[in-house]
Amino acid sequence: MTVIDGISREVTALWGGGKGRSLLVVASGWGILLGARMIYPVLLPYLRTSFNLSLTVAGFLVTILWLGSALGQLPGGILADRYSERLIMTVGTITVAGALVGVLIAPTPFLLFAATAVVGLGQSLYPIARITILSDIYPDRIGSALGVTMATGDLGQTIFPPIAGVLAAAIAWQAGLGFLIPLLLLVGIVLWVVLPAQPPTEPDADSISVGDLPSIVARLRRENLLFVAFILFLYILIWQSFTGLYPTYLVDQKGLSSSAAGLLFSVFFAFGVIVKPLAGAAYDRIGMRRSLVLVLVGPVAGLTLLPIIEGFWLLGAVTALVSSMLGSGAITQSFLSDAIPDDIQGTGLGVVRTTSATLGAAGPVLFGGIADRGYFDEGYVLLAAVLVVVILLTLRLPESTTGTATGGH
Question: Which superkingdom heads the taxonomic lineage of this protein's source (predicted)?
Answer without folding.
Answer: Archaea
